[in-house]
Amino acid sequence: MPGSLIVAVVAALAAIVPGGAAGASDEAPTADEAPTADEAPASDEAPAKVATDIAVGVRLEAVADVKVARAEVARGSTVSVARLIERQGRVTAVDVELADGHIARVAMATVRASFRVLSE
User: Fold this and answer.
1) What is the number of other CB atoms lying within 10 angstroms of the CB of residue 111?
2) Edge to edge, what strands does the sheet with 115-117 contain?
3) Any alpha helices (H) in the chain, and if so which ranges?
């Protein structure tokens, strides 16, 4: 039955996402839902500072060896942010200029995990 697959997927997502569909919404939290200063963000959430630090022209340093496109950025190497890629109002990826001048697209999850901001 084709409808049962959709029901199974929705049930699986409800089990994975805390708070069910309400926890998965893209809406900003209300004042009574907003985390307090002493609450730490969840481990899969990036600190708010990272998102504001990323802009065109920012230099990033690799904190580990990172494979981007067909190239590998060695730990300690720097790249420059050439372009921000936005989807639905959120920065989802950046184009970075490698040392040889090539441009490679890097997902924000990889940027957060494998790079640190050198300059703003």
Assistant:
1) 25
2) 103-107, 90-97, 78-87, 59-62, 115-117
3) 2-16, 20-23, 48-53, 108-114
Going from the C-alpha of 110 to that of each of 22, 54, 62, 114, the distances in angstroms are 27, 13, 10, 6
Q: Rounded distance, CA 58 to CA 53, Å?
A: 8
State the CB neighbour count (10 A cutoff) for residue 32: 5
User: Can you tell me the distance from the alpha carbon of 110 to that of 97, in angstroms, rounded to the nearest whole number?
Assistant: 15
> Residue 25: how many CB atoms within 10 A of its CB?
11
DSSP secondary structure letter of residue 36: P
The tokens of 79 are what? 């790249």
71-89: pLDDT as tens digits: 999 999 999 999 999 999 9
Torsion, Cα 120 105 113 12, to 10 degrees, reads: 130
Q: Radius of gyration of the chain from Cα atoms? A: 18
7-38 pLDDT, tens digit per residue, is: 444 444 444 444 444 444 444 444 444 444 44
